[in-house]
Amino acid sequence: VALHQAILAGAGAVGPIRVAPSLGLGYCDQAMSQLPDAAIPFTMVNNFGPGDQTARTLLAGVGIAPDRQGRPVATLTGGQKARLGMLMMRLANPNFYLLDEPTNHLDIEGQEALEGELCAHGASCLLVSHDRAFVRAVANRFWLIAGRKLVEIDSPEPFFRAEIAGG
Predict the structure, then answer these.
(1) How does pLDDT run across 99-152, given as a tens digit for each residue?
(2) Which of 45, 56, 107, 42 is nearest to 80 (CA)?
């Protein structure tokens, strides 16, 4: 069972990992599977109770034009889905983010907004990313997956240099 599946299912323990009942999970995978294709962005945001006009303004702020806000998520571009996913997490106000390649579909402006949000929010975050600039901007502890082992490292820079060199 994947960690995110166990956390989403509310498991009390996954191997050596224990999940506190107070966990407020913000989950986002690179395929945006947390956004149902048939869901309507306006309804999703409005379910948080901000009111119609505020919901429309929030959606427009993440690049979803008013004429697209009432259409199914499946009709959105990858970038729009990514920004909608980040908006939904922000509205949920999690205390723990679990992010799998969160910058894949974001433009530079979206990446910078996500970096700022993660750094300002102060929540814990476990992320997987190949985006070196993003990792440098938001991470303060690093693990390297080597074979089947997870090894804590002081800095990702030696790994980044080896990857650039083709190592």
Answers:
(1) 888 888 888 888 888 888 888 887 888 888 888 899 998 998 888 877 777 788
(2) 107
H or E element that contains 41:
helix 41-46
Q: How far apart are CA 119 and CA 113, in angstroms?
A: 10
Query: Rounded to whole angstroms, what are the CA distances from 20 to 5, 24, 57, 95, 129?
Result: 15, 9, 34, 11, 25
Q: Provide the whole-model pTM.
A: 0.75
Residue written as tokens 């990992």? Answer: 17
3-state secondary structure of 23: coil
19 or 162: which leads in pLDDT: 162
Would you say residue 6 has pLDDT above 60?
A: no
Q: Tokens at residue 46, please? A: 């409005």
Residue 118 structure tokens: 């993660």
Q: Nearest to residue 152, comparing CAs of 139, 165, 167, 162?
A: 139
**Do 156 and 128 contact (CB within 8 A), yes or no?**
no
Query: What's the CA gap between 167 and 161, in Å, rounded?
Result: 8
**R_g of the chain computed on alpha carbons:** 17
Query: At 151, which helix (H) or strand (E)?
Result: strand 149-153
Q: In this structure, what token pair is assigned to residue 3? A: 């960690």
Q: Which amino acid is at 91?
A: L
Percentage of the chain lying above the pLDDT 70 cut: 89
